[in-house]
Amino acid sequence: MNGILRFGAAPRMPQPLNWRKPAFNSRDYWFAVGNGWITDEEYEADLAAHEERVKRAKASQGKASPPPARWQRQAPQATRQYANPMSTEAARDDRLTPQAKALLQVIRARCGKHGRTETTKFTLASIMSRSVRSIQRYIGELIRFGYIVTRTRTGRTGLYTGLVIEITAKVLPYWTNFEKLAADLAGKLGADWVSNRVFSDETKLSSKNHHLNYNIIPMISGERAKRTHFNLFSPDSP
Question: Low complexity: which segments have biased composition (predicted)?
Fold first, then answer.
């Protein structure tokens, strides 16, 4: 092509072993063109693709982007299953993937009051609409970070028949740990708590909002305060 500038008689740099084609029209791209790392045919194809992208971008200006394909998926079937109270520690754990957190909620619902459930990876894959390999990866995450404990279930002949999953104390709400709950209540019900009424999560009253409601009498000085105070609560007061 006449539009491509080559380095001519200057010695060209050898192409690196792990070289990857840079973005079109960038400085590195034209450097690769000048060294002959990009052929004329590749340049023509890149130019045509670039012009097509520019054309689509101009045509889509002022138009709303199409909805994600995920919105077109089928809605889940109605179910009566619900999850018992559980801690939000797993929901705030950035080490877990969102799918692993969703699977933990389903496992918590299946465990019920007993804290354990017997199932199979195929069943969980059907519930979550995921592959068995993905379910195995999610279970591995929950085991690694201490949210569940698993063991295999075997029949009388010793063959594998399923999976037994038990949730740990990290999944249960705080009141199920009686020792921790007792220590927490003992600290709050101590003498200092009763006398000082110190609450870590207490919302303090604002002096701006409650100044006139609670400080009318102290604003009146001397005998007038006493006289007004008795008149306010006297049955003979007008």
Answer: 70-81
pLDDT tens across 11-62, in order?
A: 578 888 888 899 998 999 999 888 888 888 999 999 999 999 999 888 888 8
Ranges assigned E (strand) in the chain: 116-119, 148-154, 160-167
Secondary structure (3-state) at 101? helix
Who contacts 24 (Cβ-Cβ below 8 Å, separation ≥6)?
46, 47, 49, 50
In the numeric block, the tokens 């019900």 are attached to: 189
Q: Is the pLDDT of residue 70 over 50?
A: yes
Mean pLDDT value across residues 128-132: 94
- Contacts with 174 (C-beta within 8 Å, 6 or more apart), sequence order: 87, 180, 181, 184
Q: What share of the chain is helix, strand, coil (3-state, %, to 5)?
A: 45, 10, 45
Cβ–Cβ < 8 Å for 121, 136: yes
Domains detected in the chain: 1-49 (no CATH), 81-181 (1.10.10.10)
Cα separations in angstroms, 99 against 60, 92, 106, 137, 151: 33, 13, 11, 10, 21
CA gap 162, 156 in Å, rounded: 13
Beta strands at 148-154 and 160-167: parallel, antiparallel or unpaired: antiparallel
Complete edge-to-edge strand list for the sheet that includes strand 160-167: 116-119, 160-167, 148-154
Q: What is the mean pLDDT of the chain?
A: 80
